[in-house]
Design brief:
The chain is of the alpha+beta class and about 290 residues long. The protein has 2 domains: about 150 residues, ph1033 like fold, CATH 3.10.590; about 130 residues, 3-Layer(aba) Sandwich (Trna Endonuclease, Chain: A, domain 1). It is built from 9 helices and 12 strands. Helix 7 packs across helix 8. It is elongated, with a radius of gyration of 23 Å. About 35% of the residues are buried.
């Protein structure tokens, strides 16, 4: 199984969130709060104490009994650095002064590896951190398998293999919609000499295109629309810019207009394999994983 843990306790006596992260990473543990007033004799005893004190079923109960040895856990710090851990033992309750100062008395042995910022992290994992609950499963078999691979291979210089080995559907399912938009943007800038206007990405979701680009020599304006699903794209977009770049996972975008340039999934795969040096690290990792 794959899990997401918000390490967001309420430390006291001068302890900070950074102290909590350092404690977890240094001691190779995953920790969570919901303290009780005595040392539990076992898990059942803790569950009884926690339900009585916290008036319900706190997240610490699921944290205590659901993860198994060999499972992986994602977490992050307040600076947006992500860590991936592998569970190496069973839950225990630390009835110590330090654990209560840090507000993480519920602990699981977990060997952590620093992954980095969002550039290195699957979109599905990032999305799971938007929920406020402290602990939850990430119910995605592909992301679970990838996380297991990443835990072993992160930082290794694994080369990409030939593109025929890469399943297109799997890649675009895994990288997420925002990653797909990034990939199309890189492709257009690289092949057509356009420069992306960053502020145009922060737009209202009702607008039909993802971003605006300006040609670096002739000043033409272009827009890009990216649809990861099998969705037909609207040729009326040609009225909004000098050039329109369209991408759909179906790769089937009939058009009669010279202003509209279509980008196929095969185009993007070929671009990735030939120019891995300019790809975001998480896309490179997905490609390495899928090409094994």
């Amino acid at each position: 199984m794959l899990w997401r843990l918000h390490i967001k306790p309420r430390p006291k006596d001068g302890k900070t969130h950074d102290d909590v992260i350092k404690y977890c990473m240094t001691n190779n543990i995953a920790g969570i709060g919901w303290a009780v007033d005595e040392q539990p004799k076992n898990l059942d005893h803790y569950i009884s104490l926690a339900k009585a004190k916290h008036k319900g079923s706190p997240a610490s109960i699921a944290f205590a009994h659901k993860p198994k040895s060999g499972d992986h856990i994602w977490t992050r710090d307040k600076n947006g650095i992500y860590y991936l851990g592998k569970v190496t033992g069973e839950w225990n309750y630390q009835f110590t002064e330090e654990a209560h100062q840090l507000d993480i008395p519920n602990q699981i042995p977990c060997a952590w590896k620093k992954i980095g910022n969002e550039e290195h992290v699957p979109g599905k994992v990032i999305a799971c951190f938007r929920a406020s609950r402290a602990f939850q499963a990430i119910p995605d078999d592909d992301v679970e398998r990838f996380s297991s691979w990443l835990y072993v291979n992160n930082g290794t210089d694994t080369p990409l293999t030939d593109k025929p080995h890469i399943d297109l559907g799997s890649l675009f399912k895994m990288i997420g919609s925002h990653d797909c938009e990034d990939l199309v943007g890189l492709y257009v800038q690289f092949h057509y000499d356009y420069m992306l206007i960053a502020s145009s990405c922060k737009r209202n979701d009702t607008i039909a295109y993802e971003y605006i680009l300006k040609h670096k020599s002739n000043g033409k304006t272009a827009i890009a629309q990216v649809k990861q699903g099998y969705v037909p794209l609207d040729e009326r977009l040609k009225e909004t810019a000098d050039e329109v770049f369209l991408f759909s996972l179906s790769g089937n975008i009939p058009t009669q207009s010279d202003k509209i340039k279509t980008i196929s999934p095969e185009d993007l795969i070929d671009f990735c394999v030939k120019h891995p040096e300019i790809l975001p690290d998480k896309i490179k990792n997905w490609l390495k994983y899928l090409s094994q």
